[in-house]
Amino acid sequence: MTTENSVKTKNFSSRNNRRRDFRQEKPKDEFDSKLLDLSRVTRVSAGGKQMRFRSVVVVGNGKGKIGVGVSKGLDVPQSIEKATKAAKKNIITVPIVKGTVPHEVQAKYGSAKILLKPQIKGKGLVAGGTVRILCALAGIQDVSSKVIGKTSNKLNNAMATIEAFKIMKTRKQPLNLEKKEEADSEEEE
Question: What domains can you pick out in the chain, each with its CATH number?
Answer without folding.
Answer: 32-92 (3.30.160.20), 95-169 (3.30.230.10)
